Amino acid sequence: MSTKTDSKTASRRKFLMAAGATAAATAVSAPAVQAQSGPIHMRWQSTWPSKDIFHEYALDFGKKVNDMTGGDLRIEVLPAGAVVPAFQLLDAVSKGVLDGGHGVLVYHYGKQNALALWGSGPGYAMDANMLLSWHKYGGGKELLNEIFTSIGANVVSFPYGPMPTQPLGWFKRPVTKVDDLKGLKFRTVGISIDVFTGLGAAVNALPGGEIVAAMDRGLLDAAEFNNATSDRVLGFPDVSKICMLQSYHQNAEQFEISFNKTKFDALPAKMKAIIENAVEAASQDMSWKAIDRYSKDYVEMQTKDNVKFYKTPDAVLKRQLEIYDEVAKKYAAANPLFKKIVESQLAFAKRATQWENDTVVSRKMAYDHYFGPNAKKPI
Q1: Which residues contact 75 (CB under 8 A, 6 or more apart)?
Q2: Can you give 11-53 as a three-state secondary structure string?
């Protein structure tokens, strides 16, 4: 009798102790669960007008993150000027006025001229996708972090979204020689300012949303922005009917997704991993969307807007490269970090572009075969 009672008492005691331990564990973990409860909301701004496809790319990224986190992180993307002017995005994100942003690294050129090496130039024969490869695998990421540390920028930056080669720009008449650029009031940004100044132009750096109005009022004679879709939506065909294609001034540019570093570092590890993978997913999706949309608008500007497209003369392209080298040499002599980045890019570009040139077949022959003047229907 006594043995059975003691056994029941011991069993009940074990049960109560186990229950107490569970309750204690729950009490300890409860605040952590509560701290993570509810969605995290982030307010972003792009550097583009709401009608520009670039702002659409920013919205695309935000939606990917929202979907991939199941709504646990909600990114609200505002257009340029909603909180700060386009060229003040870096400061706003760094100070926490905005939680993040969508733009291009070249727009921060005034903070540190080495940022121009992420897209404002010939890329040392690399295209934008190869430059992104250098950034991820060739040391660029570490060098970019070094730049932001040097200027005290409290940001986490993700270059993404390789852009196709940008046009030389929109003009009143075709550019046939280098001297045609002399004296023109011209819009560009980044280290391209130095290149076009070297070509004889009087350069004015304006955000994308202000260019067409400036051309319409005669404040600019010519300007470059980016691509067929953006240029068309911004209204370039309304103020010019001549567009010069192909240029080295922004041959390898890409976009930038940025977060305030303090707020990004405070996110759960799983959420940060989702963001990093969403960047790469958005990068590829942007490339696919660009091919579809840019090619449609390129055709429609010719058939509906009466725009004439011309290839930039080789003499102008060659002179761009020569001037760029002069500018880069000047900045490298004055800025050790600029020099360090150039040397890193050159080393990566030498092997990457040799591999590409030796390996990738020319698609021009295939284009002429299927769509040239002597093409025959393949089926």
Answers
A1: 42, 44, 61, 62, 65, 66, 99, 100
A2: HHHHHHHHHHHHHHHHHHHHHHHHHHCCCEEEEEEECCCCCCH
Give the torsion through C-alpha atoms of 288, 291, 292, 296, to 10 deg: 170
Please state which architecture CATH assigns to domain 169-250+306-358: 3-Layer(aba) Sandwich (3.40)
Specify the CATH number of the domain 38-162+253-291.
3.40.190.170
Q: Edge-to-edge strand order for the sheet containing 185-187?
A: 202-204, 185-187, 222-223, 169-171, 242-245, 308-311
Here the tokens at position 72 are: 């646990």
> What is the rounded CA–CA span in Å between residue 193 and residue 203?
6
C-alpha to C-alpha distances, 323 to 202, 248, 249, 318, nearest whole angstrom: 15, 11, 10, 9
- Is the pTM higher than 0.70? yes
What are the tens digits of pLDDT across the range 18-71?
444 433 333 333 333 334 467 999 999 999 999 999 999 999 999 999 999 999
The token pair at 36 is 């993570």
Encode pLDDT of 212-263 as tens digits: 999 999 999 999 999 999 999 999 999 999 999 999 999 999 999 999 999 9
Say if 38-162+253-291 and 169-250+306-358 have the same CATH topology.
yes
As a whole number of angstroms, the distance between CA 84 and CA 95 comes to 12
> Where are the chain's structural domains?
38-162+253-291, 169-250+306-358
